[in-house]
Design brief:
Strand content of chain A: 25-35%
Number of helices of chain A: 4
CATH class of the largest domain in chain A: Mainly Beta
Number of domains of chain A: 3
Strand order of the largest sheet of chain A: 8-11-14-17-20-25-28-31-34-37-39
Number of strands of chain A: 40
CATH superfamily of the largest domain in chain A: Hexapeptide repeat proteins
CATH topology of the largest domain in chain A: UDP N-Acetylglucosamine Acyltransferase, domain 1
Helix content of chain A: 10-25%
Largest interface: A-B, 75 and 75 residues
Structural class of chain A: alpha/beta
Oligomer: homotrimer
CATH architecture of the largest domain in chain A: 3 Solenoid
Distance between the termini of chain A: 92 Å
Radius of gyration of chain A: 28 Å
Amino acid sequence: MEINLTELAARVGASLRGDGDVLVSRVAQLNQAAEGTLSFLGDAKYRARLAETRASAVILSEADADQCPVPVLVSKNPYLTFAEAARILHPPAPVVGGVHPSAAVDPSARIDPTAWVGPLTVVEADAVIGAGVFVGPSCVIGQGVRIGEDSRLVARVTLCAGTQVGRRALLHPGAVIGREGFGFARDGERWVRIPQIGRAVLGDDVEIGANTCVDRGAIGDTVLGDGVKLDNHIQIGHNVEIGDNTAMAANTGISGSTRIGRNCTIAGAVGMAGHLEIADNVHFTGMAMVTKSFLEPGVYSSGIPAMPSGAWRRNVARFRQLDELARRLKQLETSLEIMNQAQGREES
Amino acid sequence: MEINLTELAARVGASLRGDGDVLVSRVAQLNQAAEGTLSFLGDAKYRARLAETRASAVILSEADADQCPVPVLVSKNPYLTFAEAARILHPPAPVVGGVHPSAAVDPSARIDPTAWVGPLTVVEADAVIGAGVFVGPSCVIGQGVRIGEDSRLVARVTLCAGTQVGRRALLHPGAVIGREGFGFARDGERWVRIPQIGRAVLGDDVEIGANTCVDRGAIGDTVLGDGVKLDNHIQIGHNVEIGDNTAMAANTGISGSTRIGRNCTIAGAVGMAGHLEIADNVHFTGMAMVTKSFLEPGVYSSGIPAMPSGAWRRNVARFRQLDELARRLKQLETSLEIMNQAQGREES
Amino acid sequence: MEINLTELAARVGASLRGDGDVLVSRVAQLNQAAEGTLSFLGDAKYRARLAETRASAVILSEADADQCPVPVLVSKNPYLTFAEAARILHPPAPVVGGVHPSAAVDPSARIDPTAWVGPLTVVEADAVIGAGVFVGPSCVIGQGVRIGEDSRLVARVTLCAGTQVGRRALLHPGAVIGREGFGFARDGERWVRIPQIGRAVLGDDVEIGANTCVDRGAIGDTVLGDGVKLDNHIQIGHNVEIGDNTAMAANTGISGSTRIGRNCTIAGAVGMAGHLEIADNVHFTGMAMVTKSFLEPGVYSSGIPAMPSGAWRRNVARFRQLDELARRLKQLETSLEIMNQAQGREES
């Protein structure tokens, strides 16, 4: 994909300064750019790299425009403009309708003629695959699954029976959507499985990372709102609800029936207990341990950052005594108070 | 599946109050129930929902029976009775024996005629698949694997060579059982892999979650007892042994050669070091960091719950000084003791 | 594989004491050994087991050689020698070249005639599979992927388009290499995906555990050096670089653009933030939370080990007050200092 700067600027809504006939065909980092590449300056601390860049054009903000030796596209949000330009230069391959002859497709499945079903993919009874959908190799599309228009299953995605996927979803390899969740009643020492009859329901523009799991609801559904983005290795328990545009980084786990609001960001390896309520616009930092509801927007954290092991061992030993240390501190305060009063009496 | 209350009560061992001819066909939550549904009251805090429920019948305990406007099934353990009723109303689809024509089955594999092998599944040499087993689509059943009667592999399960699965197991998509574990000897800077010649051996009624891994033993076997239940994304290292009816929630990892007793519950994202001994009836709460053996039954915890990030940063800074703070506290106590003694001498 | 001790000693470079005609055919633990097995004593605390072992031969160090009732192979590094002997006794099955008829191979892929492509595996356009490579069942080899000589993909491995794998790699089931990483720009509340045009590049002798993910670079590549060993369930973000012979245990996650040196060991469930720099020979203990760069070799730790829940709750409550406790301690020190000065003045 090759495009000249005049056309690119128009398509991403940036203002061009420099030769509009210059052609770019791919993106590159400022310090690794070559002729024909488009780069960007998102962070002022890399400004010094502008002088020596070999990019054919750079996206940057008004404040940096004068310092660039090559044509520039000026934007109020250079990173977003770069994302949009990169999508123009590196579009996904177009979807060509059809079913690979090695796929195993149940005759009752309804596959839009503009959708692609890849090699060695299984499509079970009554599944419905919408227009423009790309189902890559080795996927399993369970009974009664529905996939909305223009969604893309990269490869080896498993959608268990009844799962609903919205439009323009992007599902990565190893994702498992709609597994029967972890629900048991206890009968003495024995665990009795409770049938999980709800579904997993994904909105539009949802992304699910590699090897991420979203369990189906026990009764009622597990629901991911529009624009929810999940990274790799995430666990979403049964009946969790996640609001629109909330994003989660890798290795995070959300226990059953927890409800998370809109526009939250949840960093990597966070753990949330079940049946919690998390408001809109809540942000958790990495490895946060979430054991109660958070009803106010804000940034929340937990955990002990790494330190040299010797110091860590000494401090951890004290942590085990922390309640006792606090009691001794209180005792000292009381003793000092008494001594002060005694001294006061002596002096009066 | 539709059933009248008289028959349902008899099958689950509950006592019916109300019209035994009423039919139910599925389960629902109290506040989302409609005609034809069966609901339950497990927790007294939802008792107020009874008055307005539209369920056709409710399972509850003796204490709540009078407050229910619809027929009730009285049980000493409503949640367990509900689980059993739900299993009657929502049975798994019966297994029809056969092998899908797209499966790749080695001629030396022995598949019981009442077992099903799904589309695009691989069954390698000398595998043995028992009566009533369901092997879903896209599974890999390695060489010499044995699967006991009535087990169910939902889809895309990988059983590596030699893995043994008991009866009535339930294995979810993405599970990998019997991988060669992480064992190396060091040769200077280079790692030399140690062949892993043990097996993974799963008892009866074991459940393995989506994308969960159970590594084979290095020498000797990795062993999961009867009734062990593992949620998604769990890692079980080589030569781990887990006692009967122990359950683990998602994202937990158990390092090699650790032995866990019976009837333990291990919450989500717990990490255990290797070569530990965990007694029967031990319970770890979420994200617990287990670095030593626990030989007494009980509940154990660790971790710092999330708090506003500003407060967290201040407290973490103090944690780094904790040993020093404890020493200063001790010093203060000593000083005060000396002052008190001095004061005592003055006063005498 | 049966071998006599004279030949085995020569091949592993150990010195034999005892009957060189004795045959061994497999390895076993000292206390579970039987005739025909080779065992080893790596840790002096098991020395008492020597007297009663039924092994046909034992690998051990000079210091223990006299105490063994059966033939011994003396080595300076018994564990390494055992690893090498075990590899001789338990070699992987030889790779027989060919393509299983059920595989779906694009005609433009180049597969060396000595390589094996297993049942129900997909090989896409322009992939290149080197000599002696074993691609097990149900793998997906994406467009333009290259796999170096003698690598082994056990089963169900996914290599996304463009991924490069070196020689003698070992990739376990469920691994996903080269996924498009988690990169978005924000447009108001909406997330805009940034195309991920880099690759995942794995060196020689790399091992990737079951269900482990290595994302491709955003711009530029994600790079794993020679001899890198990753356990199961690991997440490697886009543009991470890992130096030669660094090993990581299960459930660890490394965020984007972090660079890790050579010969590091990273234990289980460690989490690293993005854009960090970790020096060579750095070691993190289990569940460490790495939020800043570590530029000096050493051992680093974090986290709170598990304790009885009651004590934990009390100590955690104090942790929330830790900054306040430290201020009160400082206040006490000041008060005491003032009292001491006052007392000093009185006494003078």
